[in-house]
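Tokens for chain A. Residues wanted.
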């Protein structure tokens, strides 16, 4: 299965957050029918994060420390023993915190003084979509996104491709 560039689903909760966004995108991929929640699908995706993505995150964490940004850790830094059903709104899941939790969509966020990132995993019949919405807050956020945007457009599809659905 190959991820494709898609539009942010208009029936998703994250669609309401597009207004004023500095950046957004969506990648979708066909999956076999599943009764797993959107959060369980996200946990599957990050469980097999490509090594080069973790290497980029490590480089990012070392570099941004110089300008006072926080160390996020790695994308797949989640407790593999914790079932998806044990998470609640407000809980950390790796580098993100849950702000919306429903069976068909989970929205995770990370907020720093330079930007606000929101990531949606939306379960559809026979498909999963991952939408990212970024609101930059200042010049540092805009500069940060100049570097991150082209990498992000490679990371999401590569991570989806490796997921074992």
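Reply:
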């Amino acid at each position: 299965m190959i991820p494709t560039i898609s539009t942010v689903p208009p029936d998703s909760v994250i669609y309401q957050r597009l207004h004023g966004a500095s950046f957004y995108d969506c990648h979708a991929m066909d999956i076999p029918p599943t009764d797993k929640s959107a959060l369980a699908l996200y946990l599957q995706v990050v469980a097999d994060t490509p090594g080069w993505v973790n290497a980029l995150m490590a480089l990012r964490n070392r570099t941004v420390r110089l300008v006072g940004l926080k160390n996020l850790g790695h994308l797949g830094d989640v407790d593999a023993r914790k079932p998806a059903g044990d998470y609640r709104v407000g809980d950390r899941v790796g580098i993100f915190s849950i702000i919306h939790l429903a069976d068909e969509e989970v929205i995770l966020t990370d907020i720093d003084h330079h930007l606000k990132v929101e990531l949606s995993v939306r379960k559809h019949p026979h498909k999963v979509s991952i939408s990212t919405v970024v609101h930059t807050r200042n010049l540092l956020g805009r500069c940060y996104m100049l570097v991150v945007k082209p990498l992000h457009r490679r990371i999401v599809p590569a991570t989806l491709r490796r997921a074992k659905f």
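The mean pLDDT is 93. Helices lie at 38-47, 51-64, 139-162.
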